[in-house]
């Protein structure tokens, strides 16, 4: 056996041993220490990595749910994608058992976020097909904050079939940010399942209708920004969006409309 191959096997064995040693009891002990120390960043980051490497998926998700509920923003979810398909399957099972709509929306959003991170894995497409029907069924929620999450999630895992849904929200959603995120999600679709040329063809009319009619300047700026990324233009600088510079937004609106009417 060559030295390099032996080193590779030794490394793999160490990783497997390290993963098995990350038991729930060990993780709970580390977590208790972190609570006492008020979660110092360096130790918290190391703990997050350990959570992702451990086989304790349920405990990992329990901590994530606590973080959501308490609003502590400890970012435990950052390493959940390391669980791979096992983690996705666990979340899908949890989603199917969950009855509370708000929690279902959080899980769907989280699933979509993870799937976008692992979009090059072989289980991406089949998992998206399981998540999308649930996501779409939750979208009519009356809560604007919930719709925003779901619209963003559609941009991460949606397909050509979801263009119409996003288009409806772009044009008719009563919430300005929902309209804005619909534009961003339409653009986002070009990063995975839909060829850019196809997406440009199918969304040009939507942007042509939405941008001239948008009354909210932030939403308008975000729509223009999404359209310029999709169509490869430079109508508005990011600084004008961030600072909400009305004059530059209106100038960019005119440029975008001229292009979209061609």
UniProtKB/TrEMBL annotation:
Domain of life assignment: Bacteria
InterPro entries in UniProt: ARM-like, ARM-type_fold
Entry-linked Gene3D superfamilies: Leucine-rich Repeat Variant
Pfam family, any one: HEAT_2
Protein name (database record): HEAT repeat domain-containing protein
Organism: Streptococcus halitosis
Origin organism lineage: Bacteria, Bacillati, Bacillota, Bacilli, Lactobacillales
């Amino acid at each position: 056996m060559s030295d390099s191959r032996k080193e590779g096997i030794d490394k793999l064995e160490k990783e497997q041993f390290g993963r098995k040693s990350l038991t729930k009891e060990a993780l709970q002990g580390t977590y208790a220490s972190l609570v006492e120390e008020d979660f110092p960043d360096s130790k918290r980051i190391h703990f997050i990595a350990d959570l992702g490497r451990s086989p304790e998926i349920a405990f990992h998700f329990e901590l994530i749910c606590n973080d959501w509920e308490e609003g502590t923003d400890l970012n435990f979810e950052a390493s959940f994608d390391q669980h791979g398909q096992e983690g996705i399957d666990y979340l899908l099972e949890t989603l199917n058992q969950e009855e509370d709509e708000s929690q279902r929306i959080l899980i769907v959003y989280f699933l979509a976020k993870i799937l976008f991170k692992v979009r090059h894995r072989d289980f991406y497409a089949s998992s998206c097909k399981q998540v999308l029907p649930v996501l779409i069924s939750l979208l009519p929620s009356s809560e604007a904050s919930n719709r925003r999450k779901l619209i963003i999630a559609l941009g991460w895992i949606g397909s050509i079939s979801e263009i119409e849904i996003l288009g409806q929200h772009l044009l008719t959603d009563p919430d300005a940010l929902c309209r804005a995120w619909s534009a961003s999600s339409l653009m986002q679709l070009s990063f995975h399942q839909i060829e850019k040329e196809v997406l440009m063809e199918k969304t040009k009319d939507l942007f042509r209708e939405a941008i001239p009619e948008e009354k909210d300047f932030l939403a308008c700026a975000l729509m223009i920004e999404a359209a310029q990324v999709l169509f490869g233009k430079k109508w508005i600088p990011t600084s004008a969006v961030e600072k909400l510079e009305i004059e530059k937004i209106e100038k960019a609106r005119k440029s975008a409309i001229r292009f979209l009417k061609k």
